Amino acid sequence: MATKRTFEENLALTKARAKSVVVKKAKAKQEQLPLWPEAVRAVPNAVLRGALFSVAQEREAFKTATLIATVEGVEIRFQGTRPNQTDLDVWEMLLHLARLQPLSSEVRFTAHAMLKALGRGTSGKHHEELKQQIRNLAAGLAEITWTKERKTFGGTLISNFFRDEETGLYIVKFNQDFGKLYATGHTSIDWEERKSLGQNNLAKWLHGFYSSHEQPYPYKVETLQRLCGSATERRGFRRILKEALPKLVDLGTIDSWEIDPETDLVSVVKPRKKRLN
Q1: CA-wise closest residue to 141 among 50, 42, 52, 51
Q2: CB-based contact 120:235 (threshold 8 Å)
Q3: Whole-angstrom Cα distance, residue 150 to residue 78?
Q4: Taking 90 as the threshold, does the pLDDT of residue 81 lie above it?
Q5: pLDDT of residue 42
Q6: Residues with Cβ < 8 Å from 169, sequence gap 6 or more?
Q7: 273/253 Cα distance (integer angstroms)
Q8: Non-local CB neighbours of 46 within 8 Å, separated by 6+ positions
Q9: Which is nearest to 102 in space by CA: 148, 163, 34, 170?
Q10: Which of 43, 138, 203, 217 has the fewest CB neighbours in a 10 Å radius?
Q11: Are 72 and 250 in contact (CB under 8 A)?
């Protein structure tokens, strides 16, 4: 025969259940990305301020967890085929689709719709490129450490994917803890501005890098080259840097720039913060 609970026991049980509901609700809230407007793509600052997504056309492969160049306060190690700026375009779009629902939910889209949204062609070649980029995002392991906070996130850039070969439908899922990357700071990237930069990977990287700083410190040309992951020799990098920076002026991302001939420091002046709707 079951023993009847006392009033105190029932009260304690009710409180425990209520606490459990609160914890579950808090956890569910944490597992959703922050909402951002349609015109932007929000990207974690740790990603924008280093060479995790490099400017190189050829994707470098790391067999073991390798330290990737980034700004002070963050350490990134990566194992796999390192993505570049065109891969970042895809990743930003996937995150944009994921933001409207819990991270445990599926992100569904067709390859054709994704390619159109990216401003790309829809030929067989473009479909194959998208397949490879999603493979790379699912296979590469990133380990991001915030050294001051002594916290580390580790995982693939997307958890897994399914593709219907007949319809071109994709189903992509993210790690449920992915929101932790945003909790340490993120930046809203103007999507039309980024798209307008076309295939200029350095200009895209600089656009994200300077967008993530309210008023950036001067950086040496050598430092910027290291942070963006460029393998170009220094003289060539300086030349393409001088070609890329004016594009940011044209977009209004920065007001002006200069490279000091004596110190080789790159200084930029940013406009007042604009509101993106």
Answers
A1: 52
A2: no
A3: 18
A4: yes
A5: 96
A6: 108, 109, 110, 163
A7: 9
A8: 52, 70, 74, 76, 144, 146, 181, 184, 185
A9: 34
A10: 217
A11: no
Per-domain residue ranges for the chain?
40-269
Output the pTM of the full model. 0.86
d(CA 107, CA 138): 14
| Three-class secondary structure of residue 88 per DSSP | helix
d(C-alpha 199, C-alpha 265), whole Å: 26
CB-count burial class (<10 Å; 0-12, 13-18, 19+) for 251 = middle
- For residue 186, give both structure tokens: 């993120």
Strand partners, 50: 70
Joined tokens for residue 273: 């913060």
Q: What is the pLDDT of residues 3-40, one digit of tens each?
A: 566 656 655 665 666 565 544 554 545 588 999 999 99
- Lookup: tokens for 129: 């490129």
Q: What is the mean pLDDT of residues 218-239?
A: 96
Please tell me the distance from the alpha carbon of residue 157 to that of residue 140, in angstroms, as a whole number.
7
- What mean pLDDT is reported for the chain? 90
Q: Is 244 buried (19+), middle (13-18) or exposed (0-12) by CB count in 10 A?
A: buried
> Cα–Cα distance between 148 and 90 in angstroms, integer?
30
φ/ψ (deg, to 5) at 215 = -140, 95
What is the three-class DSSP state of 263? coil
- The pLDDT tens digits of the residues spanning 136-162 come to 999 999 999 999 999 999 999 999 999
Per-residue pLDDT tens for 84-143? Answer: 999 999 999 999 999 999 988 999 999 999 999 999 999 999 999 999 999 999 999 999
State the DSSP H helix or E strand holding residue 91, giving kind and residue range, or none if neither.
helix 85-98
CB 240 within 8 A of CB 231: no
